[in-house]
Every structure is written in structure tokens, then in C-alpha cells.
Amino acid sequence: MAGLLAVEREYLKENQEELRQEYPGKYLLIKGTQVHGAYETQDDAVAGGVRKFPEPGAAFLVRSVEDVADPVFHNPALSMGIPLTCP
Q: Sheet containing 61-64: which strands, arranged edge to edge?
């Protein structure tokens, strides 16, 4: 699996059952092969990722432990390289 967040997606896929038992119903913040937080909502997990990894271009995965499929999102600001900030 190649591409952006390939390591994180593969980690989640390979460890889904264990992560589902440890973090039932949560949204996980994953960077590399480490879970950096478990949140109630996807928005909370994204905000947590922005706080933990504020450097420009930082990439992290936010995904529900219940669903490892890759959703398709389009964010014009990110596509154009406009950094997002969190309050």
C-alpha cells in the first residue's frame, strides 16, 4: 500500500480487532504505528491531531475503529495548500 498515510492505514487494518476491543466506538488519531488519542467524535479527533501535530504539512489519520475503509474527502483549502487552524 503506497501513498499518503499508507503506514497509518496499514497499521489500522492489521490491528483493527485489537483496537476495536481497546477503543470501542472511538475515533482514533494515528500517526505512524502509534495511537495518539481516542475521541468520541471525528471532529474532536481532527482537532486533537491539529493540536498535537501543528507543524505545516503534518499528516495523521483519523478513523473510526469500526470502519477501516478509506473514505473520499475533498477539501479545497488543503488541496491548495492553505493551512487550517484550530481555535
A: 34-39, 27-31, 61-64
**What letter represents residue 5's amino acid?**
L
- Give the distance from CA 6 to its chain's centroid: 11
Q: How far apart are CA 63 and CA 13, in angstroms?
A: 11
Q: Give the separation between CA 78 and CA 58, rounded to whole angstroms.
A: 12
pTM: 0.74
H or E element, residue 53? none
Task: Characterize 22-41 residue by residue with b for buried, 16 or more Cβ atoms within 10 angstroms of its Cβ, and e for exposed.
Answer: ebeebbbbbbeeebbbbbee
The predicted-structure confidence for 18-28, as pLDDT tens digits, reads as follows 999 999 999 99
83 in Cβ contact with 66 (< 8 Å): no
